[in-house]
UniProtKB/TrEMBL annotation:
Protein name, as recorded: Response regulator
PROSITE patterns xrefs: HTH_LUXR_2 (PS50043), RESPONSE_REGULATORY (PS50110)
Organism: Allokutzneria oryzae
Lineage: Bacteria, Bacillati, Actinomycetota, Actinomycetes, Pseudonocardiales
A Pfam entry, by short name: Response_reg
HTH luxR-type domain mapped to chain residues: 144-209
Domain of life of the native organism: Bacteria
Location of the Response regulatory domain: 5-121
Residues bearing PTM 4-aspartylphosphate: D56
Alphabetically ordered keywords of this record: DNA-binding, Phosphoprotein, Transcription, Transcription regulation
């Protein structure tokens, strides 16, 4: 059975090879094509109709942001995940204005990249914590949230760590708990707050001003 159909656009052959190997070794993915620049990416998306297109930003000729704008104009059903080394404010906001569905940094862990592609393919927005922080710091003032005030101090600490982008294993090491215990606590916390994923946790933590008072 065919999995999520992915196209990789990156001017680095090494990066494309690494990503292809990543998806080839994981279940539920099929790399259907590659592109070495933005112009080629637009053409290949039109030809291949992938479910998710991974775009680097800095590429020769047409960059990733302009490619995303063209792809969304021609193939709005194609989901786009920016995967780049750069999280400059101008790039972040330019990409979001172009209509991308996610923005992830290349130093993300293997599972983070795979989960980001799964989320984007499922129609969910996916932002790395640092990118979400830039967006919220630029456009949001802290707003009181009754959900935060109802949390225990331990739950608030847990929410902060999640919003910082720490994995369950890293949170477990920080709090002196087992990773399986942290996984349970995070699941319970998300349920209590009515959140579906970690992106929503980042948004809530920053919007409520929680990350400004550390």
């Amino acid at each position: 059975m065919t999995g999520i159909r992915v196209m990789i656009a990156d001017d680095s052959r090494i990066s494309r090879l690494g990503l292809r190997l990543l998806f080839d070794e994981a279940d539920g993915f099929e790399v259907v094509g590659e592109a070495a620049d933005g112009e080629q990416a637009v053409t290949e998306v039109w030809r291949l109709r992938p479910d998710v297109t991974l775009l680097d930003i800095r590429m020769p000729g047409v960059n990733g942001i302009e490619a995303a704008r063209r792809i969304k104009a021609a193939e709005p059903a194609t989901r786009i995940l920016i995967l780049t080394t750069f999280d400059d404010d101008a790039y972040v906001h330019g990409a979001l204005r172009a209509g991308v569905d996610g923005f992830l940094l290349k130093d993300a862990r293997r599972e983070e990249i795979l989960n980001a592609v799964r989320s984007v393919a499922a129609g969910k927005a996916q932002l790395s914590p640092s990118v979400a922080r830039k967006v919220l710091d630029a456009v949001e003032l802290p707003e009181p949230d009754a959900r935060i005030s109802a949390l225990s101090s331990r739950e608030v600490d847990l929410l902060r760590l999640v919003a910082e982008g720490l994995t369950n294993a890293e949170i477990a090491a920080r709090l002196g708990l087992r990773p399986t215990t942290v996984k349970t606590y995070v699941s319970l916390l998300f349920g209590r707050l009515g959140m579906r994923d970690r992106v929503e946790a980042v948004v809530l933590a920053h919007r409520s001003g929680l990350m400004r008072h550390r």
